[in-house]
Specification:
By secondary structure, the protein is of the alpha/beta class. It has helices at 13-24, 70-80, 98-107, 118-124, 131-139, 166-175, 180-183; strands at residues 28-34, 37-44, 47-52, 115-117, 152-153, 199-200, 203-204, 212-213. The strands form 3 sheets. The protein has a 3-stranded antiparallel beta sheet. A 3-stranded parallel beta sheet has the order 5-4-8. A two-stranded antiparallel sheet has the order 6-7. The longest helix is centred in the first third of the chain and has 12 residues, at 13-24.
């Protein structure tokens, strides 16, 4: 493959100024309310960079989010209200290592309402012996929910780890198992929401989980 380099001499002055403006545009951050509490987003001109869940995200008094994020905000609110939602948004993950990129790309493939193990992710990237490293890569996932690392648990059904805390991980897993009208009854902040769950720190209990895959 031949890569051609465009000389700046062929770029009109005004176009060059506009291109430089896009490249140098700083990332923006904004916070909005959801059924589980405030959620914060950071994005660049290239795509989404980070998402913070409660309690890391805190309410702020700031300008309304740009209109181009209206659809994303509506989808996230619907997701936290218990609806099945897709996130096809562009991502800006230029700071990720090649290994992290592979792990996160596989994690994006895990369907809504299902779980996979750390070992499964390791096998998908062709390195079945690096389950622990997979966990470390997921711990550095800057876009939880968008890259659904909460759907990765241990081979024996334990929650494993989660950068947003195990209670949040458990809440997201339960949310994806319940009907929207059912979860809508639990609209208080996540710290006060702890319904019965098949996922416990000690493992899956009570019933077989047909959506769980090692």
């Amino acid at each position: 493959m031949t890569i051609s380099v465009l000389s700046t001499e062929t770029i009109p002055a005004k176009a060059g100024i506009q291109m430089q403006s896009i490249i140098s545009q700083p990332p923006i951050s904004f916070t909005f309310d959801t059924p589980i509490g405030p959620v914060a987003i950071t994005a660049s001109a290239k795509g989404l960079r980070a998402l913070a869940l409660p309690p890391q995200a805190t309410p702020t008094e700031e300008e309304p989010p740009p209109r181009r994020f209206t659809g994303l905000i509506e989808r996230l609110k619907a997701y936290f209200n218990g609806s099945k939602v897709a996130f096809p948004d562009k991502l800006d993950l230029n700071e990720a290592t090649p290994f992290q990129s592979r792990v996160w790309s596989v994690t994006l493939l895990i369907p809504y309402g299902e779980t996979r193990s750390y070992r499964w992710v390791a096998e998908q990237i062709g390195q079945p012996a690096v389950a622990r490293a997979v966990g470390q890569a997921l711990a550095r996932n800057p876009l939880p929910v968008i890259i659904p690392c909460h759907r990765v648990i241990t081979g024996d059904g334990k929650l494993g780890g989660y950068s947003g805390g195990l209670e949040m991980k458990r809440t997201l897993l339960i949310l994806e198992q319940e009907e929207p009208t059912s979860f809508a009854r639990h609209r208080s902040p996540v710290s006060h929401y702890s319904p019965p769950s098949p996922w416990t720190d000690a493992g899956v209990t009570g019933r077989n989980n047909p959506r769980y895959c090692t």
